[in-house]
User: What shape does this take?
Amino acid sequence: MRRLAASILALAMLVVGAVPALGAVDQGKLKEIKTLHQQMYTIKAQIIDKEVEAGILDQTKAEKIKEAMQKRQQKIEQDMDKGEFHGFGHKKGCGHKSSKDSPSAQKAE
Assistant: This one.
């Protein structure tokens, strides 16, 4: 019984000691991730500009998209500074309910 208690205590101490080490963020890698996010934002904005030039998007829609992208970029950077990180968001088939503005909802109307 004492061995079991000692084993559980040792395991608990190991887990508690390992959590801060796993939670530490490498600042160099974080800076690299921020740079990549900024590059991704810049490239997406360039794609939207090219779509406007090609006549795929009108200017007002492009400005709305770019404004939303800018807000998201700022939120990502603020959250990274706080230690929060974003994934790729909701995907179809993962329990995300479609909004009334989504293409699938428009087809149903």
